[in-house]
Write a structure and sequence with these properties.
This protein has 2 domains: 181 residues, Ku70, Chain: A, Domain 2; 74 residues, no CATH class. Helix content is 24%, strand content 25%. A 7-stranded mixed beta barrel has the order 1-2-6-9-8-7-5. Strands 3-4 form a two-stranded antiparallel sheet. It starts with 9 loop residues before the first strand and ends with a helix.
Length: 269
């Protein structure tokens, strides 16, 4: 990754024992799935603006716009009952922004359930940190481990997992969700397994198995259709109505569906 041509999104210092490694964060993803729209007035296509109004019927200014300077933050502990916290009180509760990633432990690679991952960033060494960064990354690779650390920035404390990559490549820093943010799995009644059906399913899985995951094989069809429609409207071209996707029939016979899937795959081959 050519960090010299990328703008960093933040700084951090990895503390590992008595070793301190200056590093920088870089964006790892760029969301393109959602097409952004503005809200317009249907009559004249002019932009409409959002306002905050007081919804309390007991207030003399009910229904009128409220200035941001007159707004406070409140936690609703019961319906329509709030504990109001001042800006000073909220600031006093915030974590000290040390911007340090304090490595607390190392865990085996793959020990973290992906459902716990909130977001991913790249983490590359800053000036004077290349040698120590490379040492830590190589030690983690040889040990087959990821680092788990606490990171404090912007008044918040987060748990991060650091995944080493190849030599000369940035680590991946995963911000993790706390345990109480992850819901328990959904359980369902266990059904008796039909061994013949499982055997057919295993064949179908084998025929659809790829040597690796290539994200470039997939496109966001909804976004592509949306952008094509927008370009046509901008160009003033006639727009044909978009046909709704054809619904698949309900699967009634599992064995028949599996055999049909295999036959379709064999014919395509």
């Amino acid at each position: 990754m050519a960090t010299t041509t990328r703008r960093s999104t933040g700084t951090a210092t990895i503390t590992f024992g008595f070793v301190s490694i200056p590093a920088k964060f870089y964006a790892a993803v760029e969301s393109k799935s959602d097409v952004s729209f503005h809200l317009l007035h249907g009559t004249c296509s002019g932009r409409v603006r959002q306002q905050y109004v007081c919804a309390s019927e007991a207030c003399a200014g009910a229904g009128r716009p409220v200035d941001r300077a007159d707004m406070v933050r409140g936690y609703e502990y019961e319906p329509d009952k709030y504990a109001v916290l001042s800006t000073e009180e909220l600031k006093s509760l915030g974590e000290e922004s040390t911007e340090a990633i304090e490595v607390v432990e190392f865990v085996p690679a793959g020990a973290i359930d992906p459902i716990s991952i909130e977001r991913a960033q790249y983490l590359a060494p800053d000036k004077a940190g290349h040698k120590a960064f490379a040492m830590l990354a190589e030690a983690m690779r040889r040990s087959g481990c990821w680092a788990i650390g606490k990171y404090a920035a912007r008044g918040k404390q987060s748990v991060v997992a650091l995944r080493p990559d190849g030599p000369g490549r940035a680590m991946v820093a995963y911000t993790l969700r706390y345990a109480d943010e992850v819901r328990e799995t959904v359980e369902y009644p266990v059904a008796l397994v039909d061994e013949e059906a499982v055997a057919l399913a295993v064949r179908l899985v084998a025929e659809k198995t790829s040597p690796g995951f290539d994200a470039g094989k997939y496109r966001d069809d909804v976004r592509d259709r949306t952008m094509a429609l927008i370009r046509a409207k901008v160009a003033g071209a006639a727009v044909a109505p978009v046909a709704a996707p054809e619904k698949r029939g309900e699967v009634i016979d599992l064995m028949a569906a599996l055999r049909a899937s295999l036959e379709k795959k064999e014919k395509a081959a």
